[in-house]
Amino acid sequence: MHDLRFVIPGQDINREDFASSVPDFNQRSEIMKTEMGYKCAITKIVSLTEKEKLFQLRIIDSRERNIFRFKPGQFLMLELPGYGEVPISISSSNSNHEFLELCIRKAGHVTSALFTVGEGTHVAIRGPFGSAFPMDEMTGNNILLIAGGLGIAPLRAPLFWINEHRDRFLNVHVLYGVKDPSQLLFTDQFDEWEIINQIILHSIVERAENGWNGKTGIITDLFSDVSIEQSKTYAIVCGPPVMFKVVCRYLDRIGIPMNRMFVSLERRMHCGMGKCCRCMVGSTFTCIDGPVFDYWSVMNLKEAI
Ligand SMILES: Cc1cc2nc3c(=O)[nH]c(=O)nc-3n(C[C@H](O)[C@H](O)[C@H](O)COP(=O)(O)OP(=O)(O)OC[C@H]3O[C@@H](n4cnc5c(N)ncnc54)[C@H](O)[C@@H]3O)c2cc1C
Ligand code: FES
Predict the structure, then answer these.
(1) Which class would CATH give 142-299?
(2) pTM tops 0.85, yes or no
(3) Superfamily of chain region 16-129
(4) What pLDDT, in 10s, does the model give residues 43-87?
């Protein structure tokens, strides 16, 4: 495995300031030099469903482990040597400096190869990349976390954050929709969060199977279970574009301001750092200006959804 490190002493690897600045190609080339690659060991693999596994990673070098920091909503580029790199959302708590968790669906070339490796395998990560959910800005408000299918993966980091700072928020509801009950992820953890911290999970499936006695329907059917105070609510919506379009339209209709709804946009990515243009929507780089956008920005991005 080649060494991916590009280190300039004294440079800050956190690209948040950059992500919100005016596009400047010279500045972007500087970022490539300051990005780091980290060698990791896969320390644990948990099979969640037929198609999804949770990978726990540990950065091998303790010095590197100590400097790696991320914000909820950011992603990293995960390399399986010999197969390639894929962008994956960080799905663990950003206060956990020992391990990173990635919830990965088997989709194609690289992710299928990942499903064949065992614990102890070495991989590499670059990042963290992209914009984050504005957790501080949301303080003092009700929070709706809305996930469709694998959208629960990017939602998990802000969920951990809210759980760890629960007293800063009013009511917190998670609305989670999947096709059938076998696709529900992390339900044990939700039970725990509900009991300890009153983070209330509302789940719904499109097709009831295996003795499911919960709700059946689509995700917007869950809104009738929650009373929403428009002027004091923020929403994070993650899932396929068709789902967040419907959900954000609903929230807009009931009066939640568009700049208080946040989505994570997924595009094909290659470099993750504004170099290859693979992820561009118009003149916007999904990898550095996103993946987290407020709904107002998404509506103004032609062909974003
Ligand atoms: C910011 C970001 C965060 C992501 N987070 C996660 C995550 O937490 N967990 C997870 O399982 N996946 C996540 N993805 C999607 C993941 O990157 C793709 O599934 C992966 O790149 C597929 O690579 P592959 O080599 O296995 O498949 P390929 O052989 O490259 O492709 C297989 C199929 O997947 C589709 N595909 C490939 N890349 C993407 C993409 N970026 N978005 C949508 N469809 C794609 C292809 O069109 C093709 O149909 C994320 C993507 C982005 C951009
Ligand atoms: S992934 Fe290369 S520019 Fe965004």
Answers:
(1) alpha beta
(2) yes
(3) Translation factors (2.40.30.10)
(4) 999 999 999 999 999 999 999 999 999 999 999 999 999 999 999
